[in-house]
């Protein structure tokens, strides 16, 4: 019998330069657990390097952590990729790194890109320009995510900056998003009024948290048998009595 | 002003010379956000941008723009050029950055109104 799981599928850790340093895997999981969230997706900018530790801690607290990444396209459109396992996530990261804007992160300008362990000890700093854009078009990114068995979601389509509609005017034909994300800036009624045209694609909403207090400010309900990636895919498609609630 | 005059004055390359270049440029608009162009560019305007995505052709068609000028040695994506030929939207390119191009267009007398 399918039951509802609460999912916040857009969380930045302290690896994202724009996130606050308190966004450590341990604190993220703790906060999510206190809110009764069942599923998290860690979606740092152009990197999956902090997913495993978060998933490990999440596992101990009964929270499923989905490997994710927020990829910045050549048009400066943000796309979320969710993956079934770390192998697929790392395959995607390899392509993203190969196509990421060259240059080193400037911590004064963009913030620190900190890698930490379960005990919140600093393991190192990612030197790449994670805030930068890739040379991959949005069309190509969606194809690549699918080639690694992932789910592709257009980030915060209601936001002008880095949202696909703001950057590209409308969602290009032939780009097969598995879902569109509505940010916390927009209510469901507003979303219907503005994006009703795109109701044929499933909608999710998530926190896009960069600070601990933002976690869970929006969640999507996934009605399914288990809190797994494969079940989430079914729920997004609305198959086998699985569905999503937003 | 005739589009051909703009092309000649700024030594622009026409990426799809098969389209009809005989058209009037009524003004110009610069933006890399397509939603902004949809809201603020007017019919007959030349659009200066660095975006090469297929959607630029749709926006230019929708707004009846006189052409798209890609800056800084950018070249249209393959499917973009194909669509531009179908939709009869001139795609022009230049090695100059946006600031230089816009300065020259302004000197030619083009305005954004």
Unreliable residue stretches of chain B:
none
How much strand content do the residues of chain B show?
15-25%
- Provide the CATH topology of chain A: TIM Barrel
Count of beta strands of chain B? 5
CATH topology name of chain B, in short, is Udp-n-acetylmuramoylalanyl-d-glutamate--2,6- Diaminopimelate Ligase, Chain: A, domain 1
Structural class determined from secondary elements of chain A:
alpha/beta
Structural class of chain B: alpha/beta
Major beta sheet, strand line-up of chain A: 9-8-7-4-3-2-1-10-11
CATH homologous superfamily title of chain A: Metal-dependent hydrolases
What's the overall average pLDDT of chain A, rounded?
A: 97
How many discrete structural domains of chain A?
A: 1
Which features would summarize this protein structure in a list?
heterodimer, A: 246 residues, alpha/beta, TIM Barrel, nine-stranded mixed sheet, two-stranded antiparallel sheet, 8 helices, 11 strands, 23% strand, B: 113 residues, Udp-n-acetylmuramoylalanyl-d-glutamate--2,6- Diaminopimelate Ligase, Chain: A, domain 1, five-stranded mixed sheet, 39% helix, globular
Entry summary:
The complex is a heterodimer of chains A (246) and B (113). Chain A is α/β, with parallel strands linked by helices and 246 residues long. Chain A is built from eight helices and eleven strands.
Folded structure, characterized:
- The complex is a heterodimer of chains A (246) and B (113).
- Chain A is of the alpha/beta class and 246 residues long.
- Chain A is built from eight helices and eleven strands.
- In chain A, helix 1 (25-34) runs parallel beside helix 2 (51-61).
- The longest helix of chain A has 13 residues, at 86-98.
- In chain B, 39% of the residues lie in helices and 16% in strands.
- In chain B, helix 3 packs parallel to helix 4.
- Chain B is built from five helices and five strands, in the order αββαβαβαβα.
- In chain B, strands 1-5-4-3-2 form a five-stranded mixed sheet, with helices on both faces.
- The interface between A and B is medium-sized, with 14 and 14 residues.
């Amino acid at each position: 019998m399918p039951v509802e799981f609460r999912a916040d599928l857009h969380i930045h850790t302290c690896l994202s330069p724009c996130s606050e340093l308190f966004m450590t895997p341990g604190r993220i999981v703790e906060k999510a657990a206190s809110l009764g969230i069942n599923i998290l997706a860690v979606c740092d900018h152009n990197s999956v390097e902090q997913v495993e530790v978060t998933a490990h801690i999440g596992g101990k607290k009964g929270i499923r952590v989905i490997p994710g990444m927020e990829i910045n396209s050549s048009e400066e459109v943000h796309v979320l990729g969710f993956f079934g396992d770390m192998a697929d996530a790392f395959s995607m990261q390899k392509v993203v790194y190969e196509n990421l804007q060259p240059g080193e992160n400037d911590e004064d300008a963009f913030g620190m890109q900190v890698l930490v362990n379960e005990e919140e000890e600093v393991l190192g700093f990612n030197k790449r320009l994670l805030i930068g854009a890739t040379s991959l078009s949005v069309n190509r990114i969606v194809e690549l995510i699918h080639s690694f068995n992932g789910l592709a979601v257009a980030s915060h389509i209601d936001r002008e900056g880095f949202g696909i509609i703001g950057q590209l005017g409308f969602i290009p034909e032939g780009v097969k998003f598995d879902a569109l994300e509505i940010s916390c800036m927009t209510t469901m009624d507003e979303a219907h009024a503005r994006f009703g045209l795109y109701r044929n694609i499933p909608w999710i909403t998530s926190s896009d948290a960069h600070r601990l207090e933002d976690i869970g400010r929006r969640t999507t309900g996934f009605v399914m048998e288990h809190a797994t990636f494969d079940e989430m895919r079914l729920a997004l498609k609305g198959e086998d009595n699985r569905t999503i609630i937003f | 002003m005739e589009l051909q005059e703009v092309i000649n004055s700024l030594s622009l390359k026409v990426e799809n010379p098969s389209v009809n270049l005989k058209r009037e440029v009524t003004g110009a608009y610069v933006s890399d956000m397509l939603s902004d162009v949809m809201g603020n560019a007017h019919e007959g305007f030349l659009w200066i941008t660095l975006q090469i995505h297929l959607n630029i052709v749709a926006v230019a068609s929708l707004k009846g723009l006189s052409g798209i000028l890609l800056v800084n040695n950018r070249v249209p994506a393959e499917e973009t050029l194909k669509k531009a030929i179908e939709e009869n939207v001139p795609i022009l390119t230049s090695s100059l950055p946006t600031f230089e191009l816009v300065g020259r267009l302004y000197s030619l007398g083009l305005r954004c109104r």
